[in-house]
Amino acid sequence: MREELITSGRMNPNIDPHLEIWHWHIPLYLFLGGLAAGILFFAALYVILGMESKYAGAVRRAPIIVPFLLVIGLAALFLDLRHKLYFWQLYTTIKLQSPMSWGAWTLMGITPISVIWVAIHIQEYFPKWEWKNVILKDLNAFFLKNKLALAWVTIVLSVILGIYTGILFSAFNARPLWNTSILGPLFLASGLSAGAATIILFARSKEERLLFARIDILLIVIELFLIIHMFMGFKASTQVQIDAVNMFLGGQYTAPFWIFVVVLGMLVPALLEFLELRHKKIPVVLPVALVLFGSLMLRFIIAYAGQMSRWLY
Questions:
Q1: Transmembrane ranges (predicted)?
Q2: 8 A C-beta contact, residue 15 and residue 313
């Protein structure tokens, strides 16, 4: 017979408070928002640089999916709302200290801009397309004439949207894993990487495809640097943040994070893209699919692990 003296009930499940309020809707919404931001960023960038004709896949072709990405993401966000009929109240005020206010207004601006961007390039997919309505025809001519200004607005909003997807988490100070300023740049780099990978599928030339393969490799290196920097910061911080990062360094999220996000989502596609740059025949869709999978898993794992991290009372 063994006698045990219990001095704490902390070993019991669910003793310490943790969140279970953000499910699949939020990481899906953040992934689609980051992907849309990445595609629009490069589309606007090459208009500003005067290279639209050289990189038509990035500027004219890939953005056609952006309105659909944003609508699906907003639908997922809407499904997550508890009081769905009151979503409009986000647009009755502007709170600069609120990430949700920034996100709501950024999406309000970038969604119609994404539709306008597709509309002015509609002939890329439908060469015989003509605007029969006089008003629509005049609007199309106006935006074509002011395309450079539209590109500057688009690139600013796309950067804000990409960073916002991470700041939405990092502003939640009650969860130690999310309480880091690295999440904003990390999610922006991840969104740009996903956008660059997607553009590879729409590239009109081998030169364009190889360019975005190089860009994607660079962005993956930046992501890895930010992840290492974030983990080092946690390990040098308070005990609760050490406990939070230990979920990825021997804890329950170690295998999913390092296998799905780092290995399959970053290292393998980077290797495949490098081999393609060395003139090896690689199926184009394979590294693209892996990058998108890794980007999606990053948001799911950060969302769920962050809700499990908690302060000790």
A1: 26-49, 61-79, 99-120, 149-170, 182-203, 215-234, 254-272, 284-305
A2: no
pLDDT in tens, 270-311: 999 999 888 888 888 999 999 999 999 999 999 888 887 776
Could you tell me the pLDDT band of residue 312, with boundaries at 50, 70 and 90? low
Q: What average pLDDT is seen over the chain?
A: 85
N- to C-terminal Cα separation, the chain: 33
The residue with tokens 């072709």 is 61
Domains and CATH numbers, the chain: 24-308 (1.20.1630.10)
The SS3 of residue 16 is coil
pTM score, whole prediction: 0.87
Distance CA 60, CA 53 (A): 9
Q: Between helices 183-202 and 147-170, what is the axis angle to 10°? A: 130
